[in-house]
Automatic annotation (TrEMBL):
Region (Disordered): 1-119
Protein name: Uncharacterized protein
Top-level taxon in the UniProt lineage: Eukaryota
GO BP annotations, alphabetical order: endonucleolytic cleavage in 5'-ETS of tricistronic rRNA transcript (SSU-rRNA, 5.8S rRNA, LSU-rRNA); endonucleolytic cleavage in ITS1 to separate SSU-rRNA from 5.8S rRNA and LSU-rRNA from tricistronic rRNA transcript (SSU-rRNA, 5.8S rRNA, LSU-rRNA); endonucleolytic cleavage to generate mature 5'-end of SSU-rRNA from (SSU-rRNA, 5.8S rRNA, LSU-rRNA); ribosomal small subunit export from nucleus
Species whose genome carries this gene: Ancylostoma duodenale
Bias (Basic and acidic residues): 91-100
Residues in the signal sequence: none
Cellular-component GO terms for this entry: 90S preribosome; nucleolus; preribosome, small subunit precursor
An example Gene Ontology molecular-function term: RNA binding
InterPro entries on file: NOP9
Length: 488
């Protein structure tokens, strides 16, 4: 066959034969043999509408890859292409080698890159993760109990910008999670953990005023102070014995952690002599620092008191003002308990000597409140102070007669009965079984007063039969009559 004839036949085969001469579509001949005709390819304008039917993985925003069918992989990736997601946190991280091998073998090839989009995706995903309540509970329950998992997570947080990291410190959910992760590092044993503690502590100390004024970040400061001293998290119940300090690292680790605690303690204790200590969050930070200092036996409390006394004005007026504050007084309670005997003597001579009566004068109007709230120790201490200073006795006796229903001349003889029974006397018949231990202790101190006019009249009015009943009572015999016979 000539070549030109073959060329013409080939060109004729390329003509569309799907339509016959009458304009009707012909039946597909391949369908008779069980084959399906290939559908026409969509135009470029319709490709975007069917992007979910693509055969190859589609790269979504933030560095994630969307597989066919619209399912996206929202896991987080760390350095070196390591992939971890929310479900991975429930695994046991104690077997480190096996876990890392399993994770690295399961990473898809498309996710092994470390490009620019990968670095940008990690922090934003991580911030969203921390601000989720459910993920916070997951981190506390699983990562918080694994030191290895806590190191991985905190290392990822350390990559964030300072501004974003501070936002996490001031948020309740994220700050609670970070606090749990740091307690999981206890006891700190290597340089990587020390670097994490130093990184977060430095950022908090650089923003000290804002950090101690926020409840969430203040808990994080207290956590870092305890971890730096080798102390675990506080238990919910009061422990019978103080916790033991633990350091597993070498001397370099101890030295680095000591520097971290010294900076936190310096900032906290410098605020002790300022009015800012009345802030409840700062007060709790200082109390925890003092407690950690006492357990670690670093001796910063005594040095601080001596420094305050050196700067105090004559008479210690500024110190006494701090003692009157609601939150600052709690700080000073911890501070005094940790001082040496020499420091306490110096504090007494500077701030207390010559002003004991002033304290009693301020507390006298509150005496009825102390009694009604069962503050027997405070009430007894005030009475003992008044027993040594006669000018304080009359105001206290008036307050006591008012509380014990003996302020009038008609019922002043009931004062003795009402005190020893704590107002359980009916005014007519005395029942010795109603005698109370705390009431007898109060009466024991009252018998040492010099202002005894009302009390002497009450004792003279007691019938002999009731005297015999009181002698037979253990409380009255030990605390009332024993004292009464010594002053006769």
């Amino acid at each position: 066959m000539p070549s030109n004839t073959l060329f013409e036949m080939t060109r004729k085969r390329k003509v569309d034969n799907s339509v016959d001469d009458n304009g009707s579509e012909k039946k597909d001949r391949l369908s008779e043999y069980g084959y399906q005709s290939v559908p026409d390819e969509p135009s470029s304008s319709t490709v975007g509408d069917h992007h979910q039917q693509r055969t190859f993985p589609q790269k979504a925003r933030h560095g994630n890859f969307r597989e066919r069918g619209g399912h996206s992989n929202r896991g987080f990736r760390g350095r070196g292409g390591r992939h971890f997601g929310g479900a991975d946190f429930g695994r046991n991280y104690e077997n480190h080698d096996g876990h890392e091998a399993g994770m690295n073998s399961s990473v898809p090839e498309g996710e092994s890159g470390g490009g620019r989009e990968d670095k940008e995706a990690y922090p934003s995903e991580l911030v969203a993760y921390l601000k989720s309540i459910e993920q916070m509970r997951l981190a506390e329950g699983h990562i918080g109990s694994s030191q290895y998992g806590a190191i991985l997570f905190l290392s990822g947080l350390a990559r964030l910008k300072h501004k974003r990291l501070l936002d996490l410190f001031f948020s309740g959910i994220s700050a609670r999670t970070i606090e749990t992760l740091f307690y999981a590092l206890y006891p700190v044993s290597n340089s990587q953990q020390v670097q994490l503690v130093e990184k977060f502590a430095e950022l908090l100390c650089d923003n000290w005023n804002d950090a101690v004024g926020c409840q969430h970040s203040s808990f994080l400061i207290r956590c870092l102070a305890r971890v730096a001293c080798g102390l675990p998290r506080k238990g919910k119940e009061k422990e019978a014995q103080p916790p033991q300090l633990k350091f597993k690292g070498n001397e370099d680790v101890k030295t680095s952690l000591s520097r971290v605690f010294e900076r936190i303690a310096l900032l906290a204790l410098d605020s002790l002599s300022s009015p800012a200590v009345e802030n409840v969050h700062l007060s709790l930070v200082i109390q925890d620092v003092l407690e950690a200092d006492s357990l670690a036996k670093l001796g910063k409390s005594a040095a601080l008191v001596e420094k305050i006394l050196e700067k105090s004005d004559e008479g210690g007026e500024d110190v006494r003002l701090l003692w009157q504050g609601k939150n600052s007084s709690r700080v000073w309670e911890k501070l005094v308990a940790a001082c040496r005997e020499e420091t306490l003597q110096s504090l007494w001579e500077t701030a207390v000597t010559g002003h004991a009566t002033d304290v009693s004068h301020e507390a006298t109007p509150l005496f009825s409140t102390f009694l009604s709230k069962n503050r027997w120790g405070v009430a007894t201490a005030l009475l003992r102070c008044a027993a040594r200073h006669e000018e304080l006795q009359e105001p206290l006796l008036k307050e006591m007669r008012r509380y014990f229903k003996a302020e009038k001349a008609s019922n002043k003889l009931n004062f003795f009965y009402n005190v020893i029974t704590l107002n359980n006397y009916n005014g007519k018949t005395f029942n010795v079984q109603h005698c109370d231990l705390q009431g007898c202790l109060l009466m024991e101190v009252l018998l040492s007063f010099k202002k005894m006019k009302t009390l002497s009249a009450c004792l003279e009015a007691v019938p002999p039969g009731e005297v015999m009943q009181l002698v037979c009572d253990s409380f009255a015999k030990q605390h009332i009559f024993a004292k009464y016979y010594t002053i006769l």
